[in-house]
């Protein structure tokens, strides 16, 4: 029997999960190709929800999707492991060994053969090599980090609730006022409100969150200044100290130093500034990459130097007409994933991968926990429409709805959204363990 081509997708995030599912349905189930998804984690949590995981507002026990279970139901295979290299001569993805908690090797390094590979491993926050950031900050790049923030944050809140001096505050600095930093700042206030509702002696007046941004306004990547202004107003009303035009030069256990020589005292720093692809992607396998390690791709998402390797999502450098790169967003990852699946299917049929990606900005929405949602819709239509409140909240959740529908189909995806909604009514609004 003739072997079928191997399609290997590395990274099961917003983009990788959708391309694996689509290829599983279209070619995996029909035996036209073997589709394998590789991820370093066991289960998928949609990244835009990580700030909710970090504050305990979202229980990943309810929201995470097991890769193995999903793979077996959708025509693809799953292998757990972290990609560390690619051997283009042998057409193999190299995975690091897997160790247990004591450091004992469970699985040795593996080499996974591919005919077509899709690199979709996302991005991490950029520390810009600022001294002390790595050592003294927490990051929100993956579920593990979000869970560790949750543990530290809730322990801090609970310890504080039983031992605090009246004049003391919990000082938390969030560096980077993009969507992640802004949403995280609001979510922390929500967490404290919930704890207070559970009878803990803590309230939001004891929380001092400082949101720090180098640009002259928060949400600098969002075109509409009105959105920045509206979010700034709302954050200030919550008591968040918003500092713009502020550059951090060092992080120490005491706090953050600025270019002006000031110290921003802080008990905890959450670093959410900038985006870069993981360092090991820089020129991986001799492929071209840009200054933030993103793999350079052509408009059809094939890498510039190898037609059998594609890259999508945050880790791909896809050029736009005006010379900029496609922005690292959930919506671009998803659009690239669905189009790249079509291109790979064309190649399997011996045709040219002719579909070319053009970023269609459907808009940006910022959700300040339960307090406020604001954003801009249909930006690609020139200017777009400003939305706030319940409509904005509905559209904000629709990106996640579409993701679930892509992964599970219309009926199951909609039922899952409903079940999550019901779960949020039945279960406490904060996961405390
Ligand atoms: C708090 C927060 C809020 C956000 N809100 C929005 C929003 O409202 N709208 C929006 O459009 N975007 C939003 N984003 C951005 C969005 O989450 C990303 O742009 C999107 O997830 C990128 O998708 P991706 O598939 O490229 O990568 P990811 O979704 O990050 O997935 C990468 C996957 O690769 C895996 N992986 C990483 N390294 C390896 C390795 N070496 N080997 C194997 N697997 C690996 C990871 O485990 C992960 O599963 C938000 C991000 C954050 C953090």
From TrEMBL:
The UniProt keyword set, sorted, is: FAD, Flavoprotein, Oxidoreductase
**Limits of the FAD/NAD(P)-binding domain:** 6-324
Cofactor(s) for this protein?
A: FAD
Q: Which Gene3D superfamilies match?
A: 3.50.50.100
Q: Which InterPro entries match?
A: FAD/NAD-bd_sf, FAD/NAD-binding_dom, NADH-Q_oxidoreductase
| Protein family per UniProt | Belongs to the NADH dehydrogenase family.
UniProt cross-references to PANTHER family, sorted A to Z: 64 KDA MITOCHONDRIAL NADH DEHYDROGENASE (EUROFUNG), APOPTOSIS-INDUCING FACTOR 1
The name under which this protein is listed is: NADH dehydrogenase
Query: Which source organism?
Result: Shewanella japonica
């Amino acid at each position: 029997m003739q072997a079928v081509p191997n399609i290997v997708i590395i990274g099961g995030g917003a983009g990788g999960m959708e391309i694996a599912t689509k290829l599983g349905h279209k070619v995996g189930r029909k035996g036209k190709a073997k589709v394998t998804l590789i991820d370093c984690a066991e289960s998928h949590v949609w990244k835009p929800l990580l700030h909710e995981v970090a504050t305990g507002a979202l229980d990943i026990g309810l929201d995470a999707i097991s890769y193995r279970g999903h793979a077996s139901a959708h025509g693809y295979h799953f292998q757990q492991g972290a990609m560390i290299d690619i051997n283009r001569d042998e057409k193999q993805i190299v995975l690091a060994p897997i160790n247990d908690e004591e450091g004992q090797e469970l699985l040795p390094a593996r080499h996974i053969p591919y005919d077509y590979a899709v690199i979709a491993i996302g991005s991490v926050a950029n520390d810009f090599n600022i001294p002390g950031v790595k050592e003294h900050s927490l990051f929100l790049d993956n579920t593990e980090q979000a869970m560790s923030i949750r543990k530290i944050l809730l322990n801090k809140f609970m310890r504080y609730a039983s031992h605090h001096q009246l004049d003391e505050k919990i000082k938390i600095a969030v560096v980077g006022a993009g969507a992640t930093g802004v949403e995280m700042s609001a979510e922390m206030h929500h967490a404290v409100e919930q704890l207070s509702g559970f009878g803990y002696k803590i309230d939001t007046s004891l929380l001092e969150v400082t949101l720090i941004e180098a640009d002259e306004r928060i949400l600098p990547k969002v075109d509409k200044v009105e959105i920045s202004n509206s979010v700034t107003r709302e954050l200030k009303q919550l008591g968040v100290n918003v500092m713009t035009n502020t550059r951090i030069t060092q992080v120490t256990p005491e706090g953050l130093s600025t270019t002006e020589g000031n110290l921003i005292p802080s008990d905890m720093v959450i670093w959410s500034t900038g985006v870069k692809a993981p360092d090991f992607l820089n020129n991986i396998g001799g492929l071209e990459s840009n200054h933030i390690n993103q793999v350079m791709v052509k408009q059809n998402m094939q890498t510039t130097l190898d037609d059998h390797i594609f890259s999508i999502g945050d880790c791909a450098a896809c050029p736009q007409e005006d010379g900029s790169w496609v922005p690292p967003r959930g919506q671009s990852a998803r659009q690239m994933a669905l189009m790249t699946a079509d291109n790979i299917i064309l190649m399997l049929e011996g045709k040219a991968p002719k579909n070319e990606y053009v970023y269609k900005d459907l808009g940006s929405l910022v959700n300040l926990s339960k307090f406020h949602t604001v954003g801009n819709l249909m930006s690609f239509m020139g200017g777009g429409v400003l939305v706030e409140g319940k409509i904005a909240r509905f559209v904000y959740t629709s990106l996640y709805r579409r993701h679930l529908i892509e992964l599970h189909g219309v009926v199951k995806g909609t039922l899952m959204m409903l079940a999550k909604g019901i779960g949020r009514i039945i279960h406490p609004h904060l996961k405390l363990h």
